[in-house]
Amino acid sequence: MGNVLITGTTSGLGKAFTEKFASMGNNIILVSRDIQKLKKQQLYLQNQYHVTVNFIAYDLTKEDAADLIMEQIETWNTPIDFLVNNAGFNECGLFSQTDLDKEIKMIDLHIRFITQLTKRILSIMKKNNYGHILNIGSTGSFIPSPSDAVYSATKAYIMSFSNALYGEYRNTGIKITLLCPGATETEFARKANIEQTLLFKYAVMKPDKVVKISYPKIIKGKRLIIPGIYNKLLVFFSKIIPIEITNKLTMIMMKNY
Ligand SMILES: NC(=O)c1ccc[n+]([C@@H]2O[C@H](COP(=O)([O-])OP(=O)(O)OC[C@H]3O[C@@H](n4cnc5c(N)ncnc54)[C@H](OP(=O)(O)O)[C@@H]3O)[C@@H](O)[C@H]2O)c1
Fold first, then answer.
1. What atom in ligand 1 is closest to the CA of residue 13?
2. Which GO terms describe its molecular function (predicted)?
3. Does the annotation mark 58 as catalytic?
4. In which band, very low, low, confident or very high, does the pLDDT at 256 lie, cut at 50, 70 and 90?
5. Mutation choice for ligand 1 from 42, 155, 185, 186, CB with most ligand atoms inside 8 A
6. pLDDT (mean) for 200-209
7. Where are the chain's structural domains?
8. Which CATH superfamily is domain 3-253 in?
9. Residue 89: which pLDDT band, with cuts at 50, 70 and 90?
10. Are 225 and 31 in contact (CB under 8 A)?
């Protein structure tokens, strides 16, 4: 049991992970933007699992987001045992047609914010020689994806970052895990307008299933988890098939039908 800080808790994978961690008796700090949803989630988790739940409602694309979170947890005097870098979104389409402002915000959230918060929390974990960080990548971390160029590039950063930190901390009390789910039935595809793609029509997994498969492996401190045989095969073939072919296949899978 410990204190778990999870970003992006109000829906999808973050919500499912929050429920799992709370059900295991952990105290939770929820971080997302929607304050009404956060208040409801706090009440529900406290009543259901009798754990302490606090929340921070903030837009994590803002430059001071990591500072604000650190100030808040210092005020609460809550040492973080487990950090889940989950919050994320997608801006999908051909690069010439996508919204650059959204893409820059995606870079802010997936790269800058995660780097800043992880550095701050790791430095405290390092003093105690104890802690665990779970980073949420994607099967897209392995596959440069035409029609999802910036998203897959940010997820490649998360993979490289997580694997490198795993190497730095592997013989210490700190665990670093990278979870790379494939298409998952959350709010993510609706928000990015990719619900009608072949990928999201035929290859989706429920978030509860992702959590059920991955949670025991996370707790063991595995470096990399790819949930589900389909996603494992996708990653395996993406490594051996020439980029020209994966490019074409990705375009087909990511086209709205
Ligand atoms: N679904 C998939 O197919 C899939 C596949 C592979 C990887 N992933 C990754 O899984 C993670 C979770 O996504 P999901 O599928 O669960 O999507 P989701 O249902 O849309 O949930 C995203 C969560 O992130 C929060 N969030 C988004 N932007 C934020 C911001 N600027 N500041 C603070 N919070 C923010 C949202 O809360 P608020 O709106 O309340 O802020 C929400 O709680 C992401 O990193 C995503 O890239 C998803």
1. 16
2. oxidoreductase activity
3. no
4. confident
5. 186
6. 93
7. 3-253
8. NAD(P)-binding Rossmann-like Domain (3.40.50.720)
9. very high
10. no
